[in-house]
Design a protein that fits this description.
This protein is an alpha/beta fold. The chain contains 5 helices and 4 strands, in the order βαβαβαβαα. α1 runs parallel beside α5. The two termini are about 25 Å apart.
Amino acid sequence: MLLIVVTEGDPKREIDWKYIKSFLDYRYGIRNKVKLKSICLASKSKFQTALPKIQNEISRFFKMRPGSSEPVVVCLCFDTDYGAPAQEQNQRIEEFARAHGYRLAWMHRDVEEVFLGRRIPDKEKVRASDAF
């Protein structure tokens, strides 16, 4: 099985991915059972640019497993954000996910609130994710 998780944030740091990967491994112990891939977008507003990256990861996965029919799950994991512009953008993301058969996980309000139960100042996010 291939699980592709699309997150937002600094692609060099992949803060959201650190939380999600740690959670998946801790809760489900899937590290050796599922191929995990992360695609980090600079902003969730760039969600449509993930499509060729997703397709590339899927192609690579099946090139390594000729004839395989293993399932592929793509999950977009984004912060909810607030306000009218965010709501409009969230709606477009929901439509995109539905049109491509992707799963969608909204982090209410951001990933740190989901996993740590509190908001973290931007300058402390890398340290907090490393400690998690």
